[in-house]
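In response to the reviewer comment on reproducibility (Comment 2.3), we provide here a single inverse folding case reported in full, input and output, so that an independent group could reproduce the run without further information from us. The C-alpha cells appear first.
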C-alpha cells in the first residue's frame, strides 16, 4: 500500500488498511508499525511436528496445528439445519472436535481428511470431549485442488517454522502474520541502541536482523540468535533502570538511626521468651547496620510463613525508637493490623506502656490506626502519633490519609508488599521530612532471578529457618468429582480434630451476595463451570450438614471492622471450632490451636496463595493438615498445580512453579500499573544467566555514565521498554 520507508512510528492504517488497523488496535492494542513488529510470536509450529492437544485447558484461547481425520454431518436436535463435526488430531493421539452450525457443504468439501491446518478458537468441553465451536482456520496447501493454497495467508506458512501469534477471536494468528509481512516489506529498523562494545562482547546480532528473524526465521539457529538479542534488550533495560535508581538512592540523605546500648531494643531482647534463630540474628545485624547509615535503607525481607519476620521487624522498629524516631507498619487488612497490634503489645509488655502505671523507664507507646476507629479514639491515637509519644504505629491504608501526621517518621515497614500499590507505599514515605528507611516484608518466597529483576534496587535478606516448635504440615488433594467419598472423609477428619480440642479453617474463593474487591474469580463461567463456592452460601450448608453441632464463625472482607475483629478474637480464644473464611486469613493470622484447613475450589487459587493459606495451620505443637478440594480432573494443568502444592512445603520450589505458570509481565507489576506488559520474551526462570550478565553490564555502564548521556539511543530504548510508571513501580518495590 505504500512505497515509503516504514518506521516504528508509522500508523498501521497507512500499511494494512483502515479496517484491519482498527481490529488490531481495538483487540490487541497495536497502533503503529513498531507495536506490531514488537508483537512477537508466542511459539512456532513446525510441519511434521504437532501441538499437544492433550495439554489444552478448557477456556483457553488456542491456535493448534492439526490434521483432519474425519468429518460427520448430522441434523441438529433443537433447530433446523445440520451440524458439521470435524475431528482433527495432532499425531500423538490427542484429538479435538470442531463444530460448525448450519448447512455448510462447501466447508465439508474443504475440510477433507488428510488436510493440515491451523485452527483457532476457545476450548470448550461437551460430554467429556474437548472441542472448538466454529473456529477460525487456515489450511496449509498440499497440492490438492489448490483452493487453500490460493489464499494469500498460506504464503506465510511456506517456511518450515510457522509463527503463532498472541491473537484474538477477531484477529487470528494468520491475519497478524500477513500484516507483519506487509510491514517488513518496507520496514527500516531503528538505530541499534545497544553499544557496539556490548554487542561484540556478548555476541549479539543487530536489532534489524533480530526483528526480521523473529517473525520470519530462516533457520532454528537464526531464530535462537534473534530471540537472545531481543531478550537481552528487555533484561538490559530493566537492569539499567534498577541500577540507575539504586545509584541515585545511594546519594539521598537520611537520618542515621544507630543502635543504643541499654535501650528499648536491649530490654526487649532480654524479655523475649525464646532464643532468636541464627537466621534472625544475622538478618537483624544486616538491618541494624543499614539503619545506622546516613542513606535510606531499602531492604526486602523474605521468609517462609512462620519464619519470624515480625520479630525481626519489631527489633528494627525498636532501634529507630531508641534513636528518637518513630516506626510505622502498614498491613493489608484490619484483621492483620489488629493482630500485629495485639502481638506486639504482648511481646513488649511494660515496654509499650509509656505513661501508664508499671511501665518500664524508657517505654514507648504502640498505636493502632484503622478506618474503623471511633472519632474519640481516632483523635487520641492521632495526637499520640503527631506528638511523638507513640514510637510504633500500626495500621492499614488509614495511615495514608490526610490528618495522620508523624513527629519524626524514621522507618516504614510494609507487610505483605504485594498487597499494596505503588501510590500507597509512596504516600506513607512522603509523611517523613526526609526519606525514611524502608523495610519490605513478604512471606511469598521469591526466586533469585525475580529478586534480581523486580527488586534489583533493594538489598535482599532471607529467613529460611523455622523457629523451634513449628510443626509439619501435610497436604492432600481431595478429588471431589471423581471420589465424593473422599470429601465426606475430609469433613469427618475435621470433626476428629475438633473432638481432639483443635480448631479448623474452611476457605472459599468468594464471599457471595454480590461483587467484592476480595473476589478474583468470576461469578459466571463461559465454559459451563459453576460459579466458585461462596462463604455465605457454604457456611449454612456446613452448619446443617457435615459440621452440624460445631461452633462455626464466618469471616470475610465485607463484614464491618468491629465484627471482623470480634470473630477473629473468638476464634483465637477458642470460642469457635471452625472459621469459614475468604483469603482474608491468608496473611499473618496466627491461631496456634488451628490444625486443619480445608480449601474448597482449591484450583481457583494461585500456587503462592495456597502456600500462604496452609501456613495458617501447624503453628503450634500439633501437626497441621491442609486438604485441597477440587473438581479439576486428573491430568489437567489445574490438577497438576494442586498436586505440586501438596507434594512440597518448600516455598521457593513453589514460587518457581508459580512463576512458570504466570505471564512474566505480571511479575513486573503490569497488573499493579494497569499497563500492558513490556516483558515479552524474557523468562525470569529460564534466562537467569542472561539476566545476571545484563546486570553486570548495566553496573559497568552506569558507573561510567550514570544518566546514559553518551548513549542517547539506549536511553530512549530503555524509556520505551520500561516506561516511567513501571520504573517508579520497580523503584518503590
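Designed residues, in position order:
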Amino acid at each position: 500500500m505504500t512505497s515509503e520507508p516504514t518506521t516504528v512510528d508509522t500508523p498501521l492504517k497507512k500499511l494494512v488498511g483502515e479496517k484491519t488497523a482498527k481490529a488490531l488496535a481495538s483487540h490487541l492494542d497495536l497502533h503503529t508499525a513498531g507495536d506490531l513488529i514488537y508483537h512477537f510470536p508466542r511459539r512456532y509450529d513446525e510441519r511434521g511436528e504437532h501441538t499437544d492437544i492433550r495439554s489444552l485447558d478448557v477456556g483457553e484461547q488456542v491456535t493448534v496445528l492439526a490434521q483432519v481425520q474425519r468429518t460427520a454431518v448430522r441434523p441438529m436436535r433443537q433447530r433446523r439445519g445440520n451440524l458439521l463435526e470435524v475431528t482433527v488430531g495432532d499425531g500423538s493421539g490427542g484429538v479435538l472436535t470442531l463444530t460448525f452450525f448450519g448447512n455448510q457443504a462447501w466447508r465439508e468439501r474443504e475440510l477433507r481428511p488428510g488436510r493440515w491446518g491451523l485452527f483457532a478458537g476457545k476450548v470448550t468441553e461437551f460430554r467429556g470431549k474437548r472441542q472448538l465451536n466454529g473456529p477460525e482456520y487456515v489450511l496449509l496447501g498440499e497440492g490438492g485442488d489448490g483452493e487453500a493454497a490460493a489464499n494469500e495467508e498460506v504464503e506465510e506458512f511456506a517456511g518450515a517454522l510457522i509463527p503463532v501469534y498472541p491473537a484474538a477471536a477477531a484477529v487470528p494468528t494468520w491475519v497478524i502474520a500477513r500484516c507483519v509481512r506487509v510491514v517488513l516489506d518496507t520496514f527500516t529498523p531503528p538505530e541499534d541502541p545497544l553499544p557496539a562494545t556490548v554487542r561484540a562482547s556478548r555476541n549479539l546480532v543487530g536489532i534489524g536482523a533480530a526483528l526480521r528473524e523473529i517473525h520470519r526465521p530462516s533457520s532454528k539457529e537464526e531464530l535462537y540468535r534473534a530471540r537472545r538479542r531481543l531478550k537481552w534488550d528487555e533484561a538490559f533495560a530493566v537492569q539499567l533502570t534498577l541500577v540507575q535508581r539504586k545509584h541515585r538512592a545511594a546519594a539521598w540523605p537520611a537520618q542515621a538511626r544507630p543502635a543504643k546500648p541499654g535501650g528499648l531494643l536491649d530490654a526487649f531482647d532480654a524479655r523475649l521468651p525464646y532464643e532468636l534463630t541464627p537466621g534472625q540474628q544475622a538478618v537483624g545485624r544486616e538491618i541494624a547496620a543499614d539503619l545506622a547509615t546516613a542513606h535510606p535503607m531499602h531492604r526486602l525481607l523474605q521468609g517462609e510463613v512462620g519464619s519470624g519476620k515480625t520479630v525481626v521487624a519489631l527489633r528494627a522498629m525498636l532501634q529507630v525508637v531508641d534513636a528518637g524516631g518513630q516506626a510505622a507498619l502498614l498491613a493489608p487488612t484490619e484483621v492483620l493490623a489488629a493482630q500485629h497490634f495485639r502481638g506486639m503489645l504482648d511481646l513488649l509488655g511494660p515496654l509499650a506502656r509509656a505513661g501508664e502505671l508499671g511501665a518500664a523507664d524508657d517505654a514507648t507507646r504502640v498505636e493502632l490506626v484503622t478506618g474503623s476507629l471511633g472519632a474519640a479514639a481516632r483523635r487520641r491515637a492521632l495526637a499520640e502519633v503527631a506528638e511523638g509519644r507513640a514510637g510504633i504505629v500500626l495500621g492499614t491504608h488509614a495511615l495514608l490519609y490526610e490528618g495522620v501526621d508523624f513527629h519524626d517518621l524514621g522507618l516504614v515497614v510494609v507487610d505483605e508488599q504485594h498487597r499494596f500499590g505503588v501510590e500507597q507505599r509512596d504516600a506513607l514515605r512522603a509523611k517523613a521530612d526526609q526519606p525514611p528507611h524502608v523495610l519490605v516484608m513478604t512471606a511469598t518466597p521469591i526466586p533469585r532471578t525475580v529478586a534480581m529483576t523486580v527488586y534489583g534496587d533493594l538489598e535482599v535478606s532471607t529467613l529460611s529457618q523455622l523457629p523451634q516448635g513449628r510443626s509439619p504440615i501435610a497436604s492432600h488433594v481431595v478429588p471431589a468429582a471423581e471420589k465424593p467419598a473422599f470429601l465426606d472423609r475430609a469433613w469427618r477428619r475435621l470433626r476428629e480434630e475438633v473432638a481432639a480440642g483443635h480448631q479448623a479453617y474452611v476457605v472459599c474463593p468468594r464471599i457471595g451476595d454480590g461483587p467484592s474487591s476480595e473476589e478474583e474469580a468470576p461469578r459466571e463461567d463461559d465454559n459451563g463451570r459453576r460459579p466458585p463456592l461462596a462463604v455465605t452460601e457454604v457456611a449454612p450448608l456446613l452448619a446443617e450438614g457435615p459440621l452440624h453441632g460445631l461452633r462455626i464463625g464466618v469471616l470475610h472482607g465485607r463484614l464491618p471492622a468491629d465484627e471482623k475483629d470480634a470473630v477473629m478474637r473468638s476464634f483465637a480464644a477458642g470460642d469457635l471450632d471452625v472459621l469459614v473464611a475468604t483469603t482474608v486469613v491468608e496473611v499473618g493470622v496466627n491461631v496456634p490451636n488451628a490444625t486443619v484447613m480445608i480449601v474448597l475450589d482449591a484450583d481457583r487459587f494461585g500456587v503462592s496463595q495456597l502456600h500462604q493459606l496452609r501456613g495458617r495451620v501447624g503453628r503450634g505443637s500439633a501437626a497441621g493438615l491442609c486438604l485441597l478440594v477440587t473438581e479439576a480432573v486428573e491430568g489437567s494443568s489445574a490438577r497438576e498445580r494442586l498436586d505440586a502444592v501438596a507434594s512440597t512445603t518448600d516455598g521457593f520450589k513453589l514460587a518457581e512453579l508459580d512463576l512458570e505458570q504466570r505471564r512474566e509481565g505480571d511479575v513486573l507489576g503490569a497488573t499493579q500499573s494497569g499497563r500492558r506488559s513490556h516483558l515479552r520474551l524474557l523468562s525470569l526462570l529460564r534466562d537467569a544467566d542472561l539476566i545476571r550478565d545484563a546486570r553486570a553490564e548495566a553496573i559497568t555502564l552506569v558507573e561510567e555514565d550514570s544518566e546514559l548521556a553518551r548513549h542517547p539511543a539506549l536511553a530512549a530504548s530503555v524509556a520505551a521498554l520500561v516506561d516511567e510508571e513501571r520504573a517508579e513501580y520497580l523503584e518503590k518495590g
